Fold:
Amino acid sequence: MRNESTNRNRGGRKFDKNGSSDRRRTGDSQESRGPRNDRNKSFDKKRTSDSQKPREFTARKEGDKKPVYSKKKQLEYKLRNMSSEEEMRLNRYIANSGFCSRREADKVISEGRVTVNGEKCDAVGTKVSYKDNVCVDGKELNPEKKVYILLNKPKNCVTTSNDPQGRKTVMDIVGNACSERIFPVGRLDRMTTGVLLLTNDGDLTKKLTHPSYKKKKIYHAVLDKKITQEELDRIANGIELEDGPIKSDQIEFVGNKQDEVGIEIHSGKNRIVRRIFEHLGYEVVKLDRVFFGGLTKKNLPRGKWRFLAEEELRILKTY
Structure:
């Protein structure tokens, strides 16, 4: 393993299984933060004193500061009270209702199957708001609130809404999470595990999956045999596959194991990580996505899911 000064194209970092790295902290020395023991003592003292205080309830008087609500409650409030005046394209309104995708909505509109406030509408560029009455084939649509679910995908599970072959899908795991129609963002093949986002937010899905946005993905790959540093350099510099050239943004051994590799890539091509190593004569025995667009699977057991926190959502949209 080379030292940091010779790790071209990889930033001189080592991957761990949660997708984080050993990037050194600067401007945050032990001296500037104070001795660790003193910090722990002060924290324990404060925690002890706070826990000894009796909890009392007092009614808020006029002029008192308003209570501070958790970020989760703030987000729920925003979703319940979205502005009815906010205008959007008609195809987005239809897609938000869960009826179909935005592209399919354009076809439905052009076929004259949509009415807005009782009037037939076949203009794709029409703008509406939540106060408008929109119907498709006479059935009123209700725009859904946005839902964001993070799943630590297990193996032997297909990333699709339904499978003609009857195999287990990710929707079998999260199907009862909400009443809204959600769908996976991108794909992980059946035997690949790790970070997978499911949502009904079409705009965000496009930003996370379109190659032009270059959203970062990090995978932990376990190979059937040891790989050399020279071959990692080849991947970093670019190799030619049957559907065009591809290169990693960063690639390193995981710890000191030469058969385990952390690879950072933003391409969304089908089975891209497996195909990269197969091109060089290696089989990927295990593949786990540990990072996707700012999200990790830390503290989320395999096969479990949870809703995103507001801070995670902010990072996801701006990362």
Observations:
- The chain has two domains: 87-140, 148-318.
- The first helix runs from residue 30 to 33.
- The radius of gyration is 25 Å.
- The chain is about 25% helix and 25% strand.
